[in-house]
C-alpha cells in the first residue's frame, strides 16, 4: 500500500541482527516508517543508524514470547500516526542437535520463538492492520528438511502453514506470504569451516551464496503493490538449491 | 510396532506448541525403538483451509516428517505422513504401505479430497 504520506508503518521483529539489519535498511529506503522490535536492547542503536528525513524510526525492546511483549508492540503501533502497512516476522533462533540428543527444552524454545511468538504477535495486531497491509514471515529453505534441526524445520514449516491459513482468513484486507531463504552470507555462515561452506555453495545452481540484500529484496517485493495479487505463497530465495541434487 | 502420530484439533497457541512437542517426543521414542512412524494429518489444514492453529500444527508435522527423513533416512528411519479428510481414518492397507515400503519414505500420501489443483506443501 502507498499513501500520500509514504508507505506506512512497517514492523520488523528481530530487527537488531542477522537479516533484520538489511531488511530494515531497505524498507526505510523504500519509504516505510519503521518500528524496530527485538529482545536485544541493541535495537535502540539502529534507530539512529536508520534515521531518515521525513521518516519515523522507533524501536521497541520486547520479548515476543510473552503477552506483555506483544502488548508493548501494539502500544507502540497505537502511538504512531502512520497506518500499519507491513509486519515482518523475522525473529528466530536455532538450537541444533541430532534428534536423539536434542533437549526437549530446546525443541520447545525454538517452537516458542520461531512460531508461537510470530503467531501471537500477528494475531494480536489483527485490528491494527490497515486495508492493503501485508504480513511477511521468514521461514527457511530448511523447512523442506535439514540435518540436526528437527526443531527449526518443524517451526519454519509450521510458520508456512500458519501463513497459508492466515492468507485465507484475512483476505482480501491483508495479504500474508512467506520468504524462505537458503544459504545466506551472515556472521553465522562465515563462522563455518571453509571446506564445509565451499561444499555447500557448490550445490547451489546460482553458483554463489545468497546475500542479505537478496533476502531484503524479496521482502520488499512481497510488501509492494507489485505483489498485490500474491497471498498465501512461499517465495524460496535459495539460488535454486531447493531443486538441485 | 508402528507409532502413529495423529493431528488433533488445536484451539489455542498452547495447543499448537503442545501438539508439536508431543509429536517430537513420540517420534524420538519410535526412532529409539526402531519403529516406523506414520503421521496422520488433515489435508485441508495442510492447505491452510481451516484455522490458523490447525494449519500451523499440520505444517509443523510435515516439517517434522521431512526433518526426520533428512536426518535418518539413510540410517533406516521410516516416516511418512498420510493426509486425510477430517473425520476420516486411513485404511489399514495405507498404513501398512506407509510403514513398510522401504522406498516410500519421507512422503505425503494424500488421500484427502480437496487437494487437486492446489499448491501442495
Topology:
The complex is a heterodimer of chains A (245) and B (121).
Chain A (H helix, E strand, L loop, with lengths): L8 E5 L6 H10 L3 E6 L4 H8 L6 E5 L5 H12 L5 E6 L14 H21 L4 E10 L11 H21 L3 E8 L5 H4 L3 H9 L9 H12 L10 E4 L8
Parallel strand pairs in A: 1-2, 1-4, 2-3, 4-5, 5-6, 6-7
Chain B lengths: L2 E4 L6 H20 L4 E6 H4 L5 H21 L6 E6 L7 H9 L7 E3 L11
Helix pairs in contact in B: 1-3
Summarize the model shown.
By secondary structure, chain A is α/β, with parallel strands linked by helices. Chain A contains 8 helices and 7 strands.
Name its key features.
heterodimer; A: 245 residues; alpha/beta; 7-stranded parallel β-sheet; 8 helices; 7 strands; B: 121 residues; 4-stranded parallel β-sheet
Walk me through this protein's architecture:
The complex is a heterodimer of chains A (245) and B (121). Chain A has 245 residues and is α/β, with parallel strands linked by helices. Chain A has eight helices and seven strands; from the N terminus they run E-H-E-H-E-H-E-H-E-H-E-H-H-H-E. Chain A has a seven-stranded parallel beta sheet with strand order 3-2-1-4-5-6-7, with helices on both faces. Helices cover 45% and strands 16% of the residues of chain B. Chain B has helices spanning 13-32, 43-46, 52-72, 92-100; strands at residues 3-6, 37-42, 79-84, 108-110. In chain B, helix 1 runs parallel beside helix 3 (52-72). The longest helix of chain B has 21 residues, at 52-72. The radius of gyration of chain B is 13 Å and the shape is globular. Classes of the chains: A alpha/beta (245), B alpha/beta (121). Chain A binds chain B through residues 98-100, 102, 104, 107-108, 111-112, 115-116, 119-120, 123, 143-151, 153-169, 232-233, and chain B through 13, 16-17, 20-21, 24-25, 27-28, 31-32, 45-64, 66-72, 106, 119, 121.
